[in-house]
Amino acid sequence: xxxxxxxxxxxxxxxxxxxxxxxxxxxxxxxxxxxxxxxxxxxxxxxxxxxxxxxxxxxxxxxxxxxxxxxxxxxxxxxxxxxxxxxxxxxxxxxxxxxxxxxxxxxxxxxxxxxxxxxxxxxxxxxxxxxxxxxxxxxxxxxxxxxxxxxxxxxxxxxxxxxxxxxxxxxxxxxxxxxxxxxxxxxxxxxxxxxxxxxxxxxxxxxxxxxxxxxxxxxxxxxxxxxxxxx
Length: 231
Fold this sequence. Notes:
8 helices; 7-stranded parallel beta sheet; globular; alpha/beta
C-alpha cells in the first residue's frame, strides 16, 4: 500500500512515535518514506513539529511535509480560525498525499488528535481525507482503562464511512503493565470490530537515541507492518 493514514483515539497517545516506527521499519526494507502532517498546531514558525520528529527518529530516506501550521494548541479548525488563517481542507490533504505517493514508496499521513477532529468550520475531518484517498487507517490507542470504548467508537466511525481500519497499535506500552493493560491486549481486536492488534510501542520510545530507536522499531510492530512483534 502506498498511503497509510495514522489517526488516534485521542491526543498525546503516541501517534508521532508510532508513525516514526512505521517509517523506520520501512527504511530497513529500503523503501523511501514521506510523512505528511496536514495540520500542525501549538507551535510557532521554525519550531520542529511532528513531521520533523519522525524524520529525526527514523533517519535518512524520510521526508517530512507540513501543509499548515497554527500557533495555538487547539483543534485545527479552531486554531486556524483564531489565527485568521485558511483551514486545511480534505481535498488539499488528499492531493498532497497522492502527489507524494508518486515520488515515495510509502506515504504516512499523521492526523491531529482523533479521527473526527475538525479541520474546518464545515466539519471536514481526517476521515474525509482518508476516504478521498481510499487509504486505510491505522488507529493508535492507549493501553490503559478506557481504551476499549474509544477504540470501538473510532472503529464504528470508520465502518460508517466505508473506510478500511488497518489495525490498532498501542502508542505507549507501560514497562509495568497492570491488569487493565494486560486484559486490553486481548480485548482490543474485538473492540476494533475485528481489526488486528498490530503492535505496541514501549513508553519512552521517543526519548531513545535515533540509532537505538531504528534498531528496535521492528520489535514493536507486527509482521503485517514489517516487524516481528507478537501479541
